[in-house]
Automatic annotation (TrEMBL):
Short name of any one Pfam family annotated for the protein: Ipi1_N
Residue ranges constituting the Pre-rRNA-processing protein Ipi1 N-terminal domain according to the UniProt record: 38-132
InterPro entries: ARM-type_fold, Ipi1_N
Name of the featured protein: Testis-expressed sequence 10 protein-like protein
Length: 256
């Protein structure tokens, strides 16, 4: 698998669109047929190349990188959600630091002639929503108290070697792995990092929302209703706001 991934992953930067799409299909087959444990050691390779594709100067490569990210979120959300840089790579796809204020980001206009700014932002924001959902799911999973009580019979005169099971006794619990994953998640999503990202993305979300609201107001004056595309854009932005609200609650709880 290592040889296949190391060769296929390089095709993600190929100038030929068909080659890039074929590479994504091959990677999709691998992701869909492997467990988190099987693919875990290869994820640094995948995420590092994903980041390179997301920050490429070639817009088409950037666009295809979102397909790979979507696959990773769909098949292995508990692994990809530890990659903090991915969120900022997504943010950089639709905004940049403002020249007027260092604390605020400005929306990027006219990304590509083949795709409107509105369509591109929604493609990116859809991935932001999926990524944040994966982070929250992992945090909630770690905080759950799973009860795995089972009756055990043994002879008191002989030693008993009893493995610890999780998930209703479906598989042995790897205590070392669990603690390692939890510490990694806590390191990546420290309250300070969470609040910093939220302070960076909120102005971007507000600007996107205001653009859609302005279009809605314009439609009303002309006697039209809000377009389906604009309605979906507003919905995605509001859903991200809701997820951020849940995220803030968790961050505040960790600081108490």
């Amino acid at each position: 698998m290592s040889d296949i991934l190391s060769k296929v992953i390089k095709v993600l930067y190929d100038s030929e669109p068909k080659a890039r799409h074929e590479a994504v299909i091959v990677i999709k087959g691998i992701l869909e047929t492997t467990t988190d444990m099987q693919i875990k050691c290869f994820f640094p390779l995948l995420t590092s190349n994903l980041t390179c594709a997301m920050t490429s100067s070639d817009f088409e490569v950037q666009k295809d990188s979102l397909d790979l990210l979507s696959l990773m979120l769909e098949t292995h959300p508990n692994l990809i959600c530890h990659s903090f840089n991915v969120l900022y790579d997504l943010l950089d796809m639709v905004s940049c630091p403002s020249k007027r204020s260092k604390r605020k980001r400005a929306l990027i206009i006219n990304i590509n002639s083949k795709l409107t700014s509105q369509d591109w932002r929604m493609k990116v924001m859809t991935q932001v929503r999926g990524f944040l959902r994966a982070v929250l799911a992992s945090m909630n999973k770690l905080s759950e108290n799973v009860e795995d009580e089972q009756e055990v019979y043994w002879d008191g005169k002989t030693p008993l070697y009893l493995p610890i099971y999780a998930g209703g006794g479906l598989k042995p619990l790897d205590v070392e792995q669990l603690s390692r994953v939890e510490s990694t998640l806590n390191y990546c999503w420290k309250p300070e990092a969470v609040k910093q990202f939220i302070s960076d993305i909120i102005p971007v979300l507000i600007d996107i929302f205001n653009e859609e609201v302005s279009e809605f107001a314009s439609c009303l004056t002309k006697g039209y209703v809000l377009s389906l595309k604009s309605a979906e854009s507003v919905q995605i932005v509001l859903q991200i706001f809701a997820i951020l609200g849940e995220w803030i609650k968790i961050a505040d709880a960790d600081t108490e």
